[in-house]
Amino acid sequence: MPEGHTIHRLAADYRERFGGRSVRVSSPQGKFADSAALLDGTVLETTEAHGKHLFLGFGGLGGEWVHIHLGLFGKVNFGDAPAPPPTDTVRLRLAHDGAYVDLRGPTTCALITDAEKRAIHDRLGPDPLRDADHVDGAAKAWRRISRSRTTIAALLMDQKVVAGVGNVYRAEVLFRHGIDPYRAGRDLTAREWRAIWTDLVDLMREGVRNNRIDTVRPEHTPEAMGRPPRVDDHGGEVYVYRRAPGPCHICAGEIHTATLAARNLFWCPTCQER
Length: 274
Hints:
The chain is built from 8 helices and 10 strands. It has helices at 4-18, 33-39, 114-123, 137-145, 152-157, 167-176, 190-210, 222-225; strands at residues 24-26, 44-50, 53-58, 64-69, 75-80, 90-95, 99-104, 108-113, 256-260, 263-267. The protein has a 4-stranded antiparallel sheet with strand order 1-6-7-5. It has a 4-stranded antiparallel sheet with strand order 2-3-4-8, with helices on both faces. The protein has a two-stranded antiparallel ribbon with strand order 9-10. Strand 9 and strand 10 form a beta hairpin.
């Protein structure tokens, strides 16, 4: 499932290519056809992201939004005009004379009201990339984390606690701060949590800029260490994610993996000592 930086990047890409323009809207697959007909010819006025949720705001409908959640299988593909004939797997296509974008396989693609959008925001935790959460996002998350017996690894993946963090950022930020993933939230110090939050903001902003996840510090890059570059689907240089049972870049000990809350967890027991 795409992590939050990808959704913020998509919001920016939609806005850059289609914002402020009248767009042709269609649903070749048919599952969004009625809503597409209402949107066809309207202006894409704004885009937003909150965690793993994308919102496209259109004019002329009294404050209604297209709510998109890619889930495990959703894909977004941008292209230049002329747009090719769409396949019947395209849930939503936006197009104008210069570009098009196709959405396939999302978990959610729905036309919602302002009130329904606000309800989604209300049930999500603060997002390290969201402007609205820059002032008190860390404190808001800390209020829940500091009272919880749940492991910090599970809390970071709980979208009601922190929105947008996925398996890669979870594993990497805990390694970068030497935090055992099995520590209970309430056993962290406020200083440790503030450092984690600040690091998430920086790492995820970098992810938006580069459209990939890189978490290793300059002294641990392949060039600095004289090691081969990482080859992986997500494309970035990481410390522990999907590196088990390989050696840790710092201590050379074995990276471990286990299942936690139905997701694969990765950590270095030496560098993240209990």
